[in-house]
Structure formats: structure tokens, C-alpha cells
Design a protein that fits this description.
5-stranded antiparallel sheet; alpha+beta; Muramoyl-pentapeptide Carboxypeptidase, domain 1; about 50% helix
């Protein structure tokens, strides 16, 4: 009995000691990685004094690894996301800042061909007009992610660019704090974009996205211009679909002219003819960010440019909707359904498993509702005589759960 108690105490002591030991061992391996990385940085043009200063107090950041590996429990619905980002307070703040910085914004808009409302909208979305730019040490975050083998090549490249920012004197080490993934400044540029697209708008000799709004706005305008922004074109607008519409066309990728969409019975959200608002030859895609009961949008080339900044439909829609309302244009006409609810990852897996069992091949059930899952769901909806919007939701999961698995 005494021996058993001693063994139990020993095992409990190991539980307390091993996590700390593992962390110490990991940090020791990380420090060896830093020393092995040093010649690569020197070869890339980073001086030894800059490297030594940058890494003087760097350690493996477990919190960064945790955030990078974290699987979200649920994904916000379109309505939840819009309610959180396109707020009256944010729009009013954007309008005030538009007036306050009018001369600078006009100069930037004329130079790069980007309407000032979009510059303000990106600023709002990235850091709430600069109110929070992040507080994670950039070198430590990027070194941690570069050490982690999952995406080492990408983050090693970003780490080298971050060291270049220090080497070239644009920022000092104390200023280099941002998101856990290494994004910097009011516009949250990754270091590679910081080097390639940031502009010294105030002529100071430095590119400073933390303290110079001249640099911030010029850099945002330059970046969007280089991404392919078309001057004078909007992102898109909300539309109304006719009854019996073929939702298979609403995939966000199928391009038609405005005239073609109008011929299918689509109008603006206010019921007006489409070609009264936009050149009838303009190419547009039809996008449904939620199910068939929610809003529909015709989106143009610049919508895809926004997605090159952040590859998310909801993000791009929020940028567009904020920009519209900063310019005193109306907000959304459609209203959220009463049963709007996010899906948990487990629910998405369950939906995928049901589709697979019913013979609609969506691949491995991974909890990510990608194009393959949406296509499988659309095929199921067609077979059931339902509006084939292909949108995964708790409502559709309930429908699937009621279908016998044998066909």
C-alpha cells in the first residue's frame, strides 16, 4: 500500500514537471533553430547587429502556436458578421474622418484611382481606424511560426522581410508589434507587403504605418492599385431575385453582363432596373452569402480585388457596405431570418457525413464547408425540389437528418 502511494505521488509529480520540461526543451530547440537561421538572414542582407538586436529577447511563443492551430468552434453567419463589423458607430466615425482628412484622402484617391470611402473602410475593418494594431512582438511571432514546420517556408520569408524593415530603419524594434501572425500597422500589412507596397507619403524617408496617416493612406491606395483596382467602378450592390430563380448561377463565380442578369428578372434591391445603375455591359457575378432567404449581390471586378486583400466573401461585403454608407448610400434592404444560426464544426461534419451517406460525394468530412460541400448540398436540394442555394445551415442539417440513408 505504501509503495502504491509513493508511486502515485511520483506520477503526480511527473504531471507537474513534464509540461515545464517539455516547454524548456522546445525553447532550447527553438534557440538552436534561431542560430541555424542566422546565416540565412545574413546572406539575405541583414546585418549582424540588426539580427542580434532583433533576437536578443526572443523566445518560443506558445500562445502564437495555440492561436495558429486553433480550430474555431463555429463560424459566424453572414448576418452575425455584418452586425459585428458594419455598425452605425463605425460608419459615423468613417464619415467624420472623411471630412477631417479630406485634402489627404482626395490626393490619394486621385493618385491611385481608389475612392476615399474604400480607404476608410479598409482602415475600419483592419484596426478600427487605428485604435488597435496588435501587441504581439513581430519578430518573436514570425520566428515561432517559421520554426513550426507546418508553414515554415511562408513565415521564414515573412521573418526575413520583417528583419528588412528593421534593417532599412522604417520601424524600430519597440514599434514592431502587431497581430499574432505578424501583420503590422493601421492597415495590417504582412512584412512582405510592407516592403513591396508601403509608400513614404509624408517624405520623411521612412515608411511608417503606425504614426503617419500620409503613409497609411498612400500605402493602402498603392496596394489596391497594384492589386488591379479599377478606378470609377464600385464593388457591387444588393439585388432582388425573382421567384423560381436558378440558384446554381449564384455561385459568386459565374460571370454575366448586367443586361443578361436583368433579362433573368433580377432587379436592384429597391426594385429598379439594373442597367439604370451600372453600365449594362459590365461583367458581374451573383453571390448569396447566406441561404436563399437572405440578400443577394451582384459583384464586380473590384469585389475580387478586395478579396485579394483578405480572401473572405464576408470581409469583402463588409468593406463594400461600409464604403457605401460612408458615402451616404443606403444599407442592406434584406433582413435576417428569425432562425439565423451559426453551424458548429461538429454540425458541419454531421452535414457532410449525411451527404456522403446519401450518395452526394463531398469528400472527407472535415468540418469546413467548402465548394465541394456546397455543390453536394446543392445537388441534394435539387433532388428534393428545394431552392438549390447550396448553403449549409442548421436548418439544412435537420432536413438531412430526416432522410433515410438508403436511397
Amino acid at each position: 500500500m505504501i509503495k502504491l502511494r509513493l508511486l502515485q505521488r511520483y506520477l503526480m509529480s511527473l504531471c507537474c514537471v513534464l509540461p515545464g520540461y517539455a516547454l524548456a526543451e522546445s525553447n532550447e530547440n527553438f534557440q538552436r533553430w534561431v542560430q541555424n537561421f542566422k546565416p540565412q538572414a545574413i546572406q539575405a542582407g541583414i546585418s549582424e547587429p540588426t539580427f542580434n538586436l532583433a533576437f536578443a529577447n526572443v523566445k518560443l511563443n506558445e500562445r502564437v502556436l495555440e492561436l495558429d492551430r486553433r480550430q474555431p468552434e463555429f463560424t459566424r453567419t453572414f448576418w452575425q458578421y455584418i452586425d459585428m463589423t458594419v455598425t452605425p458607430l463605425r460608419i459615423e466615425r468613417g464619415r467624420l474622418l472623411r471630412q477631417q482628412h479630406a485634402p489627404l484622402l482626395t490626393q490619394v484617391s486621385e493618385r491611385y484611382g481608389v475612392d476615399d470611402a474604400y480607404l476608410l473602410s479598409f482602415w475600419a475593418m483592419e484596426t478600427n481606424f487605428g485604435s488597435f494594431t496588435g501587441n504581439t512582438p513581430t519578430i518573436e511571432a514570425l520566428a515561432t511560426l517559421a520554426y513550426d514546420p507546418r508553414r515554415s517556408a511562408f513565415f521564414t520569408e515573412q521573418l526575413l522581410y520583417a528583419l528588412r524593415i528593421l534593417e532599412e530603419g522604417h520601424l524600430n524594434l519597440e514599434q514592431m508589434k502587431g497581430s499574432w501572425a505578424g501583420a503590422l500597422g493601421h492597415t495590417q500589412f504582412m512584412p512582405s507587403n510592407y516592403i513591396h507596397y508601403t509608400v513614404d507619403g509624408d517624405g520623411s524617408g521612412r515608411k511608417d504605418l503606425f504614426n503617419s496617416l500620409d503613409d497609411v493612406f498612400h500605402s493602402a491606395g498603392h496596394f489596391l492599385n497594384r492589386l488591379g483596382w479599377r478606378a470609377g467602378q464600385d464593388w457591387g450592390y444588393e439585388v432582388r431575385l425573382p421567384k423560381g430563380f436558378n440558384y446554381a448561377l449564384a455561385d459568386g463565380r459565374t460571370q454575366r453582363s448586367i443586361d443578361d442578369w436583368a433579362a433573368m428578372g433580377i432587379t436592384t434591391a429597391q426594385g429598379e432596373r439594373l442597367n439604370q445603375q451600372t453600365n449594362p455591359d459590365t461583367a458581374a457575378a451573383l453571390l448569396l452569402p447566406s441561404d436563399y432567404r437572405g440578400p443577394a449581390f451582384l459583384v464586380f471586378h473590384n469585389f475580387n480585388v478586395i478579396k485579394r486583400w483578405n480572401n473572405s466573401n464576408n470581409y469583402a461585403l463588409a468593406v463594400g457596405l461600409i464604403a457605401d454608407q460612408i458615402r451616404q448610400q443606403p444599407g442592406l434592404v434584406a433582413k435576417a431570418p428569425a432562425d439565423d444560426a451559426a453551424m458548429t464544426r461538429d454540425e458541419v461534419i454531421a452535414l457532410q457525413n449525411h451527404l456522403n451517406r446519401l450518395g452526394f460525394d463531398v469528400g472527407r468530412a472535415d468540418g469546413i464547408a467548402g465548394q465541394r460541400t456546397r455543390q453536394g448540398l446543392r445537388e441534394f436540394q435539387v433532388k428534393q425540389g428545394m431552392p438549390a442555394d447550396g448553403f449549409p445551415s442548421p436548418r439544412m442539417l435537420k432536413v438531412l437528418q430526416q432522410i433515410p440513408t438508403s436511397r
